[in-house]
Amino acid sequence: MNTNDFRAASNWLAEDFVCVWPQSNEIIRGRENFTAINQAYPAEGKWRFDVQEIVVDGNRVVSDVLVTDGNIKARAITFHNVSNGLIRSQKEFWPDEFAAPDWRSQWVNLPAPKPQGNQKSELKNYENP
Prior knowledge:
The chain has 129 residues and is mainly beta. It has one domain (6-97): Nuclear Transport Factor 2, Chain: A (Roll), CATH 3.10.450. It is 11% helix and 40% strand. The chain has helices at residues 6-9, 31-40, and strands at residues 13-21, 26-29, 48-57, 60-68, 73-83, 86-93. A 6-stranded mixed sheet has the order 2-1-6-5-4-3, covered by helices on one side. A hairpin with a 2-residue loop joins β5 and β6 (86-93). It is globular. The protein starts with 5 loop residues before the first helix and ends in a 36-residue tail after the last strand. Mean pLDDT is 89; it is low at 125-129.
């Protein structure tokens, strides 16, 4: 993916691939449409991807990936269904970051400030409960 060759990356998708974006209520049908959307996205530069975690259970895969073009910074949480070595469908969430509200401060700890460059966030060190 870091090559930004979305056409080559689409070879991992089934031809009848389906992607659901619940937050915008969109359904993308077909490998070609998914590829075209990624190629047409109005990015400021080359997309970079930083895989935070991948969980596999049989044909189900969940990925947590940080995505940036140098200007836009996002996180994609994606639930994939895989069959015969191809991604058949996925449900993709793009959550927005937000500041922790003060009212919870007595029950939570905040990690160290976000790192710069190639350093990993302190949150990466915690296992899922």
